[in-house]
Every structure is written in structure tokens, then in C-alpha cells.
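Sat 14:20. Reprocessing the chain from the morning session after the first attempt stalled halfway. Input below, unchanged.
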Amino acid sequence: MEIISIIINQNWDIQFYVSKFLIIFLIIIFLIFIYFKNKRLKFKDYEISEADIGIGNSNIKIKPNYEDIQIAYKLWIELSTRKIGIPIDFENDAIMELYNSWYEFFKISRELLKDIPIVKARKYESTSKLINITIEILNLSIRPHLTKWQAKFRKWYFFEIKKTENENFSPQEIQKIYPDYNDLVKDMGKVNNKLIKYKNILKDIAFKV
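Finished this time. C-alpha cells:
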């Protein structure tokens, strides 16, 4: 059975034949494509509580689009593959390494946001909201802690390292003698909890909405 055939007669007329089975097959494929496309486009509304992540007291509703999902996925990957996005173990984690991770996340997040075309941010309200939430996470959670603690702790830590270079102290043991250690880890823990909640929001947007 021929699926497609082309016949040229004596008058050089071209006749093109397509099997009805091929036509039915193509129609079925087209209908399946339309079905899944429409199904994927029906994203649910998603509500974000600003209070949960420490950037306000409102509840923000967004209906994510593909651009939002891509943004959320990239940011979720960054948070999930760094210490910043999992609970801190202050008995075993080195604060200096944590600060390096937080600083890198800040820079990478900023670059990811800068790569979003402005036309999409202006076209989609949900994209604009997600960008603003991420910026506020950076500016209202991470930045205040880094501004208050990072420089002071680094200066003290490097000085303390030199003092104890001939002694067998671990970074974890050294950091515990920081004069404001309890206040530092308390504040760092609060930021860490907010970032974990933010990571979970991003995961929901990327995989569940």
C-alpha cells in the first residue's frame, strides 16, 4: 500500500496522492499535540506569602508562565546545590565557607535576573513579580546580614588564624570564640530559614504549578 505517490501523465500534469491512513495519522498527531500544549499552558495560580520569606506582610498571587518556570528552576538549582539552601549545621559548617556560598549566590542570582529580556518582564506581570520577589530576597535578607556581619567576621577570623597558626584548631573551633558568635549564628539562622522557604517556593513553581 502506497502512502504517498506522485504521478506524471503524458501531458506532464503532476498528480499527488496521499493515503487516507497518513492523513488520519497526521490529524491524530496534530490533535495530540494541541491537547498537550493546552494542558501545559494551564498553569495554576500560585500564592506567595511575603511574611514567610521576610519581605513584607502581603500575599502575592501569580500565574506562572514558561519564563517564570525557567527563572524559578535556575534559582532553585543554585539554592539546592549550595549550603545556602539547606539547614546550617553550626557544629560542623565553617562560617567562612557559608559566607563565600552566600556571596556567590548573590552574584549569580543578580546575573540570572539581568539575563531576563526586559520585554518579557514588562509583558508578563507574573515574571515582573517573581523578579521583584527575588530582588527583595537579596536586598532584604542576604544583603543586610552580609553588610552587618561578613566584613567584621572575616577581619577577626583572619587575625585569629594568624594567632593560632601553630596550634591545631579547626575552623569550627576558631569561629566559636568570636566575641559575637551567638548573635551572628542567630541572625544567620534566621536568614537561612527564609532562604529555605524561598527555595521551596521556587521548587513548587518549577515542578508543581
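The chain has a mean pLDDT of 85.
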